[in-house]
Amino acid sequence: MKAYFHDNIPGDERLDHDSHRPVTPAYLTSLGVIHHTCPSISDVNTIAEERSYKNRDEITVSPGVMGEAYEGKVKMFQEEHLHEDEEIRYILDGQGFFDVRSEGNEWVRIRCEKGDLLVLPAGIYHRFTTDAQNVGIVYIKAVRLFKDEPKWTPLNRGPETDGNAHRKTYLESRARAVAA
């Protein structure tokens, strides 16, 4: 995992967009983002049990697997959104980027690759894209973990979403963390 502020230069979001302004693991934690390096699925199983994740599935995001649906799915993942549940991903293979909003409303880019487990809190604005570093290969395979039944419902950013109860709870938790 490597984290840094996004450079905000227009262009293909599958490129690094590295501003050379690094972000520390402690800063990610201050945003509510949790990262683990898990060399094996048994490490993931231990974390899943500790955090009460009961269900899981696998997703492969690539043109070869998704066919004509690939471009539309990636555009959907790239839209800034939040979820009302944690978003938990364990990267089995390939690599990609999760971008999360900082407290100053900047994008923090998190490069994830094989062995990374990332937990995004409910209510955080974020987006995802695959990575095009491997000589044009666009590919990521991940385990998605869920506390309850598998669901992935994005709520795109807007005035209504800004007032969402899970968004407000997220912001309140960040304010409490800063005050502590």
Which structural category do the helix and sheet elements fall into? alpha+beta
Beta-strand fraction estimate:
35-45%
Residue-averaged pLDDT = 92
Gyration radius over CA: 16 Å
Percent of residues in helical segments? Answer: 25-40%
The SSE order reads EEHEHEHHEEEEEEEHH
Query: How would you describe the shape?
Result: globular
Largest sheet: 9 strands, antiparallel
The residue ranges in which pLDDT falls below 50 over 5 or more consecutive positions are none
User: End-to-end span in angstroms?
Assistant: 27 Å
Number of helices: 6
Oligomer: single chain
**Number of beta-strand segments:** 11
Main attributes of the structure:
alpha+beta, 9-stranded antiparallel beta sheet, two-stranded antiparallel sheet, 11 strands, 27% helix, globular
Give your account of this protein's structure.
The protein is of the alpha+beta class and 180 residues long. It has helices at residues 25-30, 41-50, 63-66, 69-78, 159-162, 165-179; strands at residues 2-6, 18-22, 34-37, 55-61, 81-82, 87-101, 107-113, 116-120, 126-130, 140-146, 155-156. The strands form 2 sheets. Strands 1, 2, 3, 4, 6, 7, 8, 9 and 10 form a 9-stranded antiparallel sheet that branches. A two-stranded antiparallel ribbon has the order 5-11. Strand 6 (87-101) and strand 7 form a beta hairpin. The radius of gyration is 16 Å and the shape is globular.
Helix and strand arrangement:
Elements: E1 2-6, E2 18-22, H1 25-30, E3 34-37, H2 41-50, E4 55-61, H3 63-66, H4 69-78, E5 81-82, E6 87-101, E7 107-113, E8 116-120, E9 126-130, E10 140-146, E11 155-156, H5 159-162, H6 165-179
Antiparallel strand pairs: 1-2, 1-7, 3-8, 4-10, 5-11, 6-7, 6-8, 6-9, 6-10
